[in-house]
Design a protein that fits this description.
Elements (H helix, E strand, L loop, with lengths): L5 E7 L2 E5 L4 H23 L6 H15 L1 H8 L14 H19 L15 E2 L4 H11 L15 H13 L14 E2 L4
Antiparallel strand pairs: 1-2, 3-4
Helix pairs in contact: 4-6, 5-6
Length: 189
């Protein structure tokens, strides 16, 4: 049997309203929501059985570390102090290294390697030695006392090697307004 609409006795400026019941499905959904909220509050806040958001975050980080442990171990296995690296010649990697240089190194070393806050990378004078091994080691380990950070945690090992190869390609490029020589003179690369 259908409920009849009941007109309420009050009115406001000639406007009257009906006393209509809420739809049954809406009432059941509302009651279910209240029950769910009560169970949620009990489970997570009163009983303390459910994990907190910080515990869930730590669990996700642990899962990530387990999943990518082999990649992390491989990247950290390079001994930058005893390098024996070969120059990267792949054009794609060199282009990526140029982009890395422009985005991360040009602020200190200049867009063409001419120097700025950091030393000139185009001349034959080197503070920490020239050649693939010394340049890659300097990039990877940084020079904290001079303000250069270690990039081994930011860049992958193959990106560091490509970046060192790109820097070697800047040697002798004679950019305009180079910084005065710093360090020791090294002939050849």
């Amino acid at each position: 049997m259908k409920n009849e609409d009941k007109l309420l006795s009050h009115n406001f400026d000639g406007i009257q309203e009906y006393d209509n019941p809420l739809p049954g499905w809406w009432v059941y959904l509302f009651v279910l929501t209240l029950i769910w909220a009560g169970l949620y509050i009990f489970y997570y806040h009163i009983a303390g059985e459910g994990p907190s958001s910080s515990e869930e975050y730590i669990a996700e980080i642990d899962e990530y570390n387990v999943k990518f442990a082999s990649i992390i171990a491989r990247e950290s296995s390079i001994n930058w102090n005893e390098p024996n690296f070969e120059v990267v010649t792949d054009g794609g990697q060199i282009e990526k290294a140029k982009t890395l240089f422009m985005n991360n190194c040009a602020a200190c070393h200049g867009a063409m390697g001419e120097g700025g806050i950091g030393p000139n990378l185009t001349d034959s004078y080197w503070i920490h030695g020239n050649g693939m091994n010394n340049i890659a080691k300097t990039i990877a380990l940084g020079v904290p006392e001079k303000g250069m950070i270690s990039w081994k945690t930011t860049f992958k090992s193959n990106d560091i090697l490509a970046l060192a190869s790109y820097i070697m390609s800047l040697h002798g490029s004679n950019p305009p307004n180079p910084k005065a020589p710093q360090g020791d003179l090294f002939e050849g690369m």
